[in-house]
Amino acid sequence: MQIYLPIAEVSVNAFLLLGLGGIVGLLSGMFGVGGGFLITPLLFFVGIPPAVAVATSANQIVASSISGVLAHIRRRTVDFRMGLVLLAGGLLGSLMGVQLFNRLRELGQVDLLVQLSYVVFLGIIGALMFAESLTAIARARRPGGARPRRRRHNWVHALPGKMKFRTSGLYISVIPPLMVGTLVGVLAAIMGVGGGFIMVPAMIYLLGMPTKVVIGTSLFQIIFVTAFTTLLHATTNYTVDMLLALLLIVGGVIGAQVGTRLGLLLRAEQLRILLAALVLLVCGKLAFDLLVRPAELYSIGSTK
Predict the structure, then answer these.
(1) Would residue 75 count as lying in a domain?
(2) Using alpha carbons only, what angle is made at residue 280 by residues 276 and 286, rounded to the nearest 5 degrees?
(3) Which of 102, 71, 40 is closest to 226 using CA atoms?
(4) Given the DSSP bridges, would you call strands 10-13 and 162-165 parallel, antiparallel or unpaired?
(5) In terms of DSSP bridges, do strands 10-13 and 2-5 run parallel, antiparallel, or are they unpaired?
(6) pLDDT in tens, the chain (304 residues)
(7) CB 216 within 8 A of CB 246
(8) How far apart are CA 188 and CA 197, in angstroms?
(9) Which residues contact 106 (CB under 8 A, 6 or more apart)?
């Protein structure tokens, strides 16, 4: 069933968009990521203009993240204090990112920026996560099984402004979480992502949070940052297509509930290696599209 999207100015199959939303919702529940790293490139692939895809996908991320975080709240695996610190940095980063997005859109360079940002960030994060996950799985298969890893002190623990995060069992400075949140906010505005593909590894390896708490806390922060980003895009760029967002939201809410249940069936290192493989797959497709000569070298567009 073909429908016309008024803001994107293209016709797309409605069931295809529902399916894309469902896939991203599934990832949200399983891995604690908003799914924007996947939904935004997928929207590129089905013909949605990058500026509209970035602004609109944030709506779907909000809905699927709410659905996923409710399930984690029932299991008491959300560190609300850590989530609020990350959120403070995220709101600041979103404001900065939208301003940069607007400037580059005026210069006609936003499409290239979005695609290059995906290739760089997804490639780096995916490779690091994949290598670490393989090491963890190999360690677990050794005779005697995996030994509990001692929590090591690093430069994070030497910073001032420490706060106790009881749910995570941490007593660390608020500066690193604020920095992580700010970076994620910038990425949410420029790339249309919740930032979970960066936040989840940072919370595990940099802050030292338990994996079971990381997923719910990441989703909690993602909800508010992406909602704020969507509001800024809607009021400054007018690139939010509500019909497209509605279809993605319906599929995403259903998928998130299924993903939360599937996530409980897998071990932490298995979840991380699956997420890393998905990140690298999307990175490869985007890099391929950038390097291959297009069928049509020129296109006619207009600036609004």
Answers:
(1) yes
(2) 150
(3) 40
(4) unpaired
(5) antiparallel
(6) 788 888 877 888 888 888 888 877 777 666 666 566 777 777 877 888 877 887 777 776 776 678 778 878 888 888 999 889 999 998 898 888 888 878 877 777 767 777 787 788 778 877 877 887 788 777 777 765 555 454 555 666 667 778 888 888 888 888 888 998 898 888 777 776 666 667 777 888 788 888 778 888 888 888 888 888 778 877 877 778 888 888 888 887 777 777 777 766 766 666 667 777 877 887 887 788 777 765 555 555 544 4
(7) no
(8) 11
(9) 303
Alpha-carbon distances, residue 76 vs 13, 128, 223 (angstroms): 39, 29, 17
Specify burial of residue 173 (Cβ count, 10 A radius: 0-12, 13-18, 19+).
middle
How many domains are contained in the chain? 1
Q: What are phi and psi of 155, to 5 degrees?
A: -60, -25
Among 302, 284, 129, 135, residue whose Cα is nearest residue 202 = 129
Q: Which residue segment(s) compose the domain that 36 sits in?
A: 2-140+155-291
298 found inside a domain: no
Rounded to whole angstroms, the Cα distance separating 293 from 288 reads 10
The answer to whether residue 103 sits within a structural domain is: yes
Q: What pairs with residue 170 in β-bridges?
A: 165
Determine the Cα–Cα distance for residues 130 and 275; give it in Å rounded to an integer. 8
* Residue 300 covered by a domain: no
Cβ atoms of 270 and 78 closer than 8 Å: no
Rounded to two decimals, what is the model's pTM? 0.66
> Packing angle between helix 175-191 and helix 211-236, nearest 10 degrees?
50
